[in-house]
Amino acid sequence: MGYLHLKGMKIALLLICSLFVIPAAAQTVGAWPLPAGFQRMPQSPGSFGAWLRNVPLKKTATVYLFNGEKKRNQSAQVAVLDISTGKKDLQQCADAVMRLYAEYLYANKKYGQIMFNATDGTPMDYGAWRQGRRWKLRGNKLAGIHSAAPCDTRACFDEYLETVFTYAGTISLKKQLQPVRNSADIRPGDVFIESGSPGHAVIVMDVAVNSFGEKRFLLAQSYMPAQDMHLLKNPSAASAWYALPGNTLRTPEWTFGNGSALMRF
User: Fold this and answer.
1) Where are the alpha helices (H) located in 168-252, listed in sequence order?
2) Which distant-in-sequence residues (6+ apart) come within 8 Å of 133 by Cβ?
3) What are phi and psi of 9, to 5 degrees?
4) What pTM, to 2 d.p., does this model score?
5) Whole-angstrom distance, CA of residue 235 vs CA of residue 248
6) How wide is the angle at C-alpha 65 spanned by C-alphas 61 and 66, nearest 5°?
7) Which of 116, 120, 148, 154 shows the shortest CA–CA distance to 134?
8) How far separated are the first and last CA of the chain, in Å rounded?
9) Residue 191 pairs with which residues in a beta bridge?
C-alpha cells in the first residue's frame, strides 16, 4: 500500500508539473498549436502582427511579479512571454500593451513613431526623449523640460518606458487607439480595453481562421501588481484560443462588457 501511495503521489506531481511546461514546439507565440481546422491569418512582413508572432515564450509557464515573487494565481495562463517586466510595480495591463507596441517600433528603428499620451493628455514621444526632454509634474500637469543629455542606448529607452508607465494607463491608451468597427475584422495587435480606475486591457497576439471564415485568437496580459506578460487560458473552453465574443468577453481575471471596446494602434 505504501508503494502504491507513493507511486500515486509521483504521478500526481508529474501531472501538476506538466501544466507549467510549454509544448516543445511552442518556442514563440506563432508556434502555439492551432485549433483543429484553423490556419493562421497571413501577416505582412514587418507588420506588428508578424512581430508579435515572433515574441519568444519562456520554457515554463510560471508567472512572477516584478519583485521576483510568484504570482498567487497561477491558473490564468498557458505560457509566459519572454519580455522584461522591469524591477518596479509599473508594467501592469495597459503598460504591457504599450511595451509590446513600443518594442516592435524600437526593433524596427521607427523611433519617431514611439509616442504615448499621459492621462492628462500630454504627448510623451521617444524622439523628444532621445534629444533630452523629460516630463515632470508641475502641479497637476506634466511639463516637458529639456533637462538631460541626448541619448540613444537601450537603457535610455527603458527609462523612457518607465516614465510612460508612470503617467499613462487605460484611460489615456483608449483615447489614443482607434476603434475597430467590426469585430470580425480582428487582427493580431488589436486591444480589448476598458478604461477606468481600475480598468483593464488585453492584447490579441495571434489570429487563426478556418474555411468557414470563423476566427480564433490568442490573448496576452499583464495585471496588478506588475508581472510577467502571459498568454491567457480561455475559461470557457479547453484551449487558449478564444472565439469572437458576443456582449461580453470573459478572461480568467477580467470580464469585458459594457464600456469595453476592441481597438487598434
Assistant:
1) 170-176
2) 144, 145, 146, 147, 148
3) -65, -40
4) 0.90
5) 13
6) 125
7) 148
8) 61
9) 203, 263
Q: How many CA atoms lie within 13 A of 99 on its CB side?
A: 30
Grid coordinates representing 111 are 523611433
DSSP 218-239: EEEE--SS-B--EEEPBTTTTB
Cell numbers representing residue 171 in the block? 484611460
> Could you tell me the three cell numbers for 93?
495591463
DSSP 168-180: --HHHHHHHSEE-
Alpha carbon 247 to chain centroid, angstroms: 22
Q: Report which DSSP code applies to 11.
A: H
Grid coordinates representing 200 are 483593464
Sequence letter at residue 188: P
Spell out the per-residue pLDDT of the chain, length 265, in tens.
Answer: 443 443 444 434 333 343 444 565 579 999 999 999 999 999 999 999 999 999 999 999 999 999 999 999 999 999 999 999 999 999 999 999 999 999 999 999 999 999 999 999 999 999 999 999 999 999 889 999 999 999 999 999 999 999 999 999 999 999 999 999 999 999 999 999 999 988 999 999 999 999 999 999 999 999 999 999 999 999 998 899 999 988 899 999 999 997 789 999 9
Instruction: With beta carbons less than 8 A apart as the criterion, state whether 55 and 82 touch.
Output: yes
Q: What angle do CA 170, 45, 234 make, to 5 degrees?
A: 45
